[in-house]
Amino acid sequence: MNKPEGTASNIQSTLAENRLFPPPAEFAGKARIDSKRLTELRAEAEKDFVSFWAKLAREELNWKQPFSVTLDDSKAPNYRWFSDGKINVSYNCIDRHLATHGDKPAIIFEGEPGDVATLTYKQLHAEVCKLANGLKSLGVVKGDRVVIYLPMIAQAVIAMQACARIGATHSVVFGGFSAQSLRDRIEGASAKLLITADGGTRGAHVVELKKAVDEALAGGCKCIESVVVYKRTGKPIEWTRGRDVWWHELTEKASATCEPEWVDAEHPLFMLYTSGSTGKPKGIQHSSGGYLLGAHVTSKWVFDLHDADVFWCTADVGWITGHTYIAYGPLSNGATIVMYEGGPMTPDPGRFWKICQDHGVTIFYTAPTAIRALAKMGEQIPKRYDLSKLRLLGSVGEPINPEAWMWYHRVIGKEKLPIVDTWWQTETGAILMSPLPGATATKPGSCTQPLPGIFAEIVDEAGNLIQGNDAGGYLVITRPWPSMLRTVYGDNERYLSTYWSQFGDPLTARAEKRPLLYVAGDSAHRDKDGYYWILGRMDDVLKVAGHRLGTAEVESALVAHPRVAEAAVVGRPHEIKGEGIVAFVICKGERPTGKEAEALSRELREFVSKSMGPIAKPDEIRFTDALPKTRSGKIMRRLLRSVAKDEEITQDVSTLENPGIVDQLRGRA
Ligand code: WT7
Asked: Strand, helix or coil at 75?
């Protein structure tokens, strides 16, 4: 990992941000958690965090068999929560609401072309059961892995819930990922079945999902026995007899009831691949009981869910946000959610605000990159829509810059709505740090403080806790929490080394009864009021439009091209995406210049886009004869970052193996 470098200026800017926005009195008056309640919850958790979570698990979830062991830390950091309890996630998200909320809309879906479909809890139950029975008829049993590769349509949630219902572990692959990424994930999970669609619509283009599936499965992926295809676009597709099955045919005659499969709380509900510092994404494995508890209580607390709310989280189900705050958390609370298939600019940049207006959205949760893109379009656009139903705004995925926060507050929130800036990760399963909208005064750009039951600290490079406020360093979580990842699928060593070994061997720490530190990979600053400011990743992970991308993954995609000998990828600040991608490339043969360089650069950008997916497409490619390396052969990424930003080089280049290369990298030689 890098040192918490480059953070000094960030710390300066966060220190300069001292505006404080107390929770609006009217909101606080009706909130599920006001400041008094928050203080009580914190005190309870502080006193005994294990009992704190046990009580919530008993009160908030329905168990088939109650648990007697709350936290089993005998194999820490492979913690187990509620391990002798039996539960079903789909039962908790659907069945338990049927008697009281059966006719309440669970999902309001809007397609990009404008089609709208509403599913009540009863209808959702029937659809989930039918698909669950269909999957069973294709031989899927508890413990099997199912890959889901769908557009942002209600069927994505139905598919996830159907897997949960029968105890199959799902792995959702973002519909924007390429055939190759899909293949890696199918093989990584040795999935038996894949659920996809003929296509979807995004940004007025048809996304040909089935075509990518056929490509991914061609000549490999022997594990997949069946492909269930949902008809969304109706456009012609290739068909493999004996393997492909239409969703509508599979479910047509299936029964609309399906007894939930009661699983152990630790049963893996899903895995979700995410990027790390190596070239290979890792399958983050989540549990059933603990994960659901985190999803449930954070949805309730952070979004202050009330019965009349209409909750819209704009994330894709392909990311953890879409799992926790679309497919599971809000439904577990019996809420109504909005799902939208398409892009924010289609047909025009008013689309998000029109959806808020048309469906009476009360809680809106999106990413800073979307806020910045929409802000750039001007405030007259949202002003055309009736946003009066909105009562709470949220942000997630990357640090939100104070300018974007203020625009959100002023233009969308009319200076009245609270904003929750929620910090969490694929690995944490649910929000760990966030304001509670009826209790916490907010500061633009800060995710404020850990939720009750979560214990965060800042440590220095040796892992020593930095006491008191006004501290900067590595962000760590010092006690386990129910929705934490359980392992990296098929690679527990990687789980131990990535998250628990930065400050010494976790197994030794366990044996010596010393606390284990979960290393988030972010650097953070805690200000004089004890508020946290996330400064960014400290590993070689980029946040491009809120999406996590490993520089090593982009590098290996580049070197797969026949002309590329070596590549180094770094991030550079980008006005809308937060971070953009710059690649330094050494070619086989002559370094291309002029027109040839332009053409090859275009080709390489397309090549990466094709092999990983459009989100990984580099913004810029620079050709060079060599990369700046230390005498021990390490690429000086920090120097490359400065070069990519066109900054003056202040670092010491005297230790470089090849100091002359700097001018060439900067395009001056
Ligand atoms: C990384 C996790 C959490 C769901 C979406 C992203 C960054 C996330 C915030 C925030 C500052 C944030 C961190 C984190 N991040 N939320 N509110 N403020 N940074 O999940 O893809 O697993 O990425 O996103 O760097 O480590 P993810």
From this structure: coil
Q: Is 579 in the pocket of ligand 1 (CB under 6 A)?
A: no
Q: Is 396 in the pocket of ligand 1 (CB under 6 A)?
A: yes
pLDDT in tens, 133-161: 999 999 999 999 999 999 999 999 999 99
The closest residue, in CA terms, to atom 23 on ligand 1 is 425
- CATH for the 541-669 domain, from 3.30.300.30, 1.25.40.80, 3.50.50.60, 3.30.70.360: 3.30.300.30
Count Cβ neighbours within 10 Å for each residue of 416-452 and write b for 16 or more, e otherwise.
ebbbbbbbbbbbbbbbbbbbbbbbbebbbbbbbbbbb
Weakest mean pLDDT among 212-221, 294-303, 413-422, 608-617: 212-221
Residue 534 CA: nearest ligand 1 atom is: 11
> Would you say the C-alpha torsion 328, 185, 159, 104 has a positive or negative sign?
positive
Could you state, in order of their start, the residue ranges of all structural domains in the chain?
Answer: 541-669
Atom of ligand 1 nearest to the CA of 399: 11
| Segment 324-365, tens digit of pLDDT | 999 999 999 999 999 999 999 999 999 999 999 999 999 999
d(CA 251, CA 244): 14
Q: For atom 18 of ligand 1, which residue has the closest CA? A: 399
The pTM of this model reads: 0.95
